[in-house]
Amino acid sequence: MDLIISSNSCNSLCRKPAIYRRISSPNPTTQHSTSLKCRVVKTTSELQSSVGVSDRTGNNFSPSIPTHKVTVRDRQRGVVHEFLVPEDQYILHTAESQNITLPFACRHGCCTSCAVRVKSGQLRQPEALGISAELKSKGYALLCVGFPSSDLEVETQDEDEVYWLQFGRYFARGPIERDDYALELAMADE
What we know:
This protein is an alpha+beta fold and about 190 residues long. It contains five helices and twelve strands. The protein is globular, with a radius of gyration of 24 Å. The chain starts with a strand and ends with a helix.
């Protein structure tokens, strides 16, 4: 019986990649052994491009997928990040793979922690549930579920600002002030 497993699993099972091992049957009454063939199996997810060309920082991108320069002006930290992102990869995920730290929380497009304002360029964000269609039309986006469609320049936003823009009209009292004592009590319950 041949068993094909990914190279990482093979490394952990065999301790040596791409070799043949003979593994005794777990059933003591059976006298035959099973052949385990370790082969490299290339897998890709639907949204991530397969390994192809490397950029100057060593990141692998497929030559068939367009890649765009993304510039993120991080207002909270006072830094500017420039990096390349393939059209089929999330901006936040690609930044993290290049050791770039950007604000985030949920990674699913449901909050506003990674919210940015688009200064130039375009991006797709079909899964951005954390911001309304109205804010999207005003140029707001979420990096965790955003795909670049062109070279892009964005600026991070304060999460409370975006939250207020989205929900402020529903609260007649003005912006919500942070209550550290209530937060401390809530964290103690966890």
